[in-house]
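User: For a teaching handout, I'd like to show students what a predicted protein-ligand complex looks like in token form. I'll give you the sequence and the SMILES for zinc ion. Please answer with just the structure.
Assistant: Understood, here is the input followed by the structure.
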Amino acid sequence: MTTSSTIIPAGHGKAVRLRAGQSVQVINTYGTQVVDCWAWNAYDLDECMCMEATRVYNQHLNPVVGDSFVTSERHPILTLVEDTSPGVHDTFMAACDRRRYELLGCTHYHRNCADNLFEGMLELGVTPPRRNLASFNIFMNIRVQPDNIHLQTLPTVTRPGDSITLRAEMDCFVAFSACPQDIVSIQGAGDNTPKDAELRVLDTPFPDIPVRGPWVPAHL
Ligand SMILES: [Zn+2]
């Protein structure tokens, strides 16, 4: 059941507060948009979603349905419960920020995901810590090359209406940015123009997908 729907305007940020058991569906309306995502414990903003700890927990480069994202304290905070996209996402790349665009040659302010995080959270009346960990880059297409060293940055491979759904495992804030990147070709469909995306908060609990425990070596 959908309880609310929010448009993330192209190049801007939005955030939602979820109760444990609620989910947020991220819809790639036009099929071409990368959406960066961060999450925080609603009662302790120093505890935030952590890509490094998540890769340890799942032993995956990128999440698949059933994987949980864990926090800097290694507690599950979000679980990927549905993914209608080709499943290509990224946990490696730093969110774009003001300096990134300076390094790309911009001489004037360029909208960026790092500032959009604050735009979304401040709209809820919440000020997150200044330092934030790596984002989960939804629909972003970063390919590990066959030599296992090089990465290749490619346009997203999603289709219009593709979505992923993330279930909250604790009361939390989740911020999103419809990435304003229009210099490096990461948005799909050729022209690299940032587009709107949509968030839907759902009360559906997805009971068939439990929270898995962490990976541990087989000999333990
Ligand atoms: Zn960005």
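For the handout, you might add this sentence: The longest strand covers residues 76-83.
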